[in-house]
Design brief:
- There is one protein chain.
- The protein has 260 residues and is an alpha/beta fold.
- The protein has one domain (22-251): Aromatic amino acid hydroxylase (Phenylalanine Hydroxylase, Orthogonal Bundle).
- 47% of the residues lie in helices and 10% in strands.
- The chain is built from 12 helices and 6 strands.
- A hairpin with a 2-residue loop joins strand 3 (170-173) and strand 4.
- Helix 6 packs parallel to helix 11.
- The two termini are 24 Å apart.
Length: 260
Amino acid sequence: MPKQTNYIAKVADNTGFIGYSDAEHGVWSDLFKQQQACVERYSADVYLDGLTKLAMPSERIPQCAEISHLLQPLTGWRVAPVPALISFGRFFDTLAEKSFPAASFIRSRADFDYIKEPDISHEIFGHTPLLTDPSFARFSETIGKIEQQVAPADYSWLIRLYWFTIEFGLLNQNGVYKALGSGLNSSPTELIYSVDSPEPERREFNVIDILRRPYRIDIHQPIYYVIDNIEDLLQVTERDLLSEIKKAQSLGLYDAGQSA
């Protein structure tokens, strides 16, 4: 998560409605149409199923309340608009409450292909389809609850587990790599790169390895972790993540660029 942003958060009125300009709706529409074509080819079925369930409008930015109305009957989650950037602590706390914190602004045309910080397109198009799936929803909630048991100094260890699964995870779907993570499904360029490019390393899903893996937000990921089965995430929620964080800390972080 970036520490600063050039964007200003949109503020909801007393009914929860956020007003967007025609130009902002235009950015959403163009992003949606571009990504719709890409995700149909490169994304995992669990994501595509969620996208179908939420039936987002393509011509305008949907309101968080609209998405919540469809999401809550499925997994009990809702979406709440927040400022452009929030702390790790607040982020984890909202997950523990089954509330996804969605940055309310949308990127400018200048940042159309890549934006460091999450915007409403990434939050709604990238994240909420996964939250229709019970396994992903429970995994996200569990990460939030684990945060409440660790010291703030440990947050960066926990966020790596989120980063390499919910944000940038891949799925082995019938022997073919498919994009799972929200950061991939909302990216015009990294979605294709993560699945098709011979450049990145694709590693077997391993919690300790993930916890030790530094990441950067300003490049396409050099390493992706591949989940063989969605149920693998449910198994993670049943493990002693606190102990695994301590084990990872005892082993230390990998050096940048280190592959093992």
